[in-house]
Amino acid sequence: MMTFKNIETLKNESMNLSDKIYIFDTTLRDGEQTPGVALTVDEKIQIAQKLNNLGVDKIEVGFPASSKGEIKSSKKIKAMDLDSTLVGLSRSLQGDVDAVLDADLEYVHIFIGTSPLHRDYKLKMSKSEIISKAVDTVEYAKDHGLTVEFSAEDATRTEKGFLYDIISQVIDAGADFIDIPDTVGVLTPVVTRELISDIKDSFNIPLSVHFHNDFGLATANTLTAIECGANQAHVTVNGLGERTGNCSLEELVMTLKSAYDIDLGLDTTRLYSLSNLVGRLTGVKMPVNKPIVGDNAFAHESGIHVHGILNNSSTYEPISPEMVGHSRRIVLGKHTGANALKSKLKENHIDLTEEQFYKVFNEIKSLGDSGKCVTDDDLVAIAITELASARETPIEIKGLSISMGANVSPTATVKLEIDGVEKETASTGVGPVDAALNAIGDLIEDTLHIELEEYNLEAINGGTDALADVFVICSDPSGNKATGRSINQDIVMASILAVLDSINKLLLIYPNQ
Ligand code: KIV
Ligand code: ZN
Fold this sequence. Notes:
By secondary structure, this protein is of the alpha/beta class.
């Protein structure tokens, strides 16, 4: 990437990057604290498996003291024997550490509030009481063989003197990692630089950061902390977490990879499917413009951009969608250019003359001007109408009669004109619609073998004279599909016309099948 100075120079001149940066994922703990989100044991297992496959170093699986379900899910995840280290959250209470031990975990994340607000309004404890609780709990966890990460909750609103005091005392008590939570996301990059550089200069211990996103700065602040020597970042999939969430896993990992050229050894092609799984299981859908995993992350509409993308995707994409397992999408609308439309028609195997092409182009533009977004199905329908207006419809219905009687299968006699030649046959079926469609199948056998993939019947208005609205999807032997629709007073006729509509589209778009 082009910068005034190249990234390697910047790394040497103004960064203090650690040789190893650990990714500590807390989707299953802080992410689950997203308002309205609760995961079942099975859902936690599915997410843990995917996080492990992605290759994150640590997974905070939950808060074992908070419920029996948390202990159960932690135990089950532990039994999966994953490569990632599993972590359990604990307040500065021996009982919470016991719950982490009960959950079969070997790594505990102990925290206690340290800011004046937490001391006075939540804990109602003095500074010395807080320090002794933290130290006792860290010592207790170490005595029980656990690896300990200690968090000074609300660290970024804590007086420097007290923050450094508690950090140094928990280090003396045996803490292995110190974590700095920006609990309500008040940091900015410049303050982060000051804070993390100073902590790194003052303590010789692996340093972690846990930054919330209240002002949309969690990823920027976490990157700044990493530039200043932080050894570990707490992240969540899709940036989930309390309120507006935590630093997003996918944003951090991909920025480190593409802008900083730091390979964390993760299989980034799994990011998009992980994001989708978490979105589905938590019910928190990503906005379309969410970086890396949003629907629009690799979507293009404007003519100028699509033209560039079709020549070289790097013109308007900083990374390729394949790098994160996503895909590129060309969207049609009022900004569409001729190149985008040509590529879309090619994708859909539709061949138009120049005159037809510009008719379709103008139709799409005017739909866009009226505020509509043109889907692939809309495009196929518009192009087909254009093709059909220039060509004879290949198959037309010329006659239909149905005979039914008690205890005999209904018989349909259907007459079709296929490429100008009339053909007639009779066929039976479980009902009159089935009989008529069987007859059509027999009549067009030599022209095209079709499968009826979907059949949908709806009545418009109630009553015995209701109109039948039939929607179908048929496919040809190459797997090409086309929709068909018809509204008629007679169910059998509506079905035949819908199927013929679909077959005619297949014949017009894919004439060589
Ligand atoms: O945001 C926070 O302060 C936390 C702590 C439990 C570390 O999530
Ligand atoms: Zn948090």
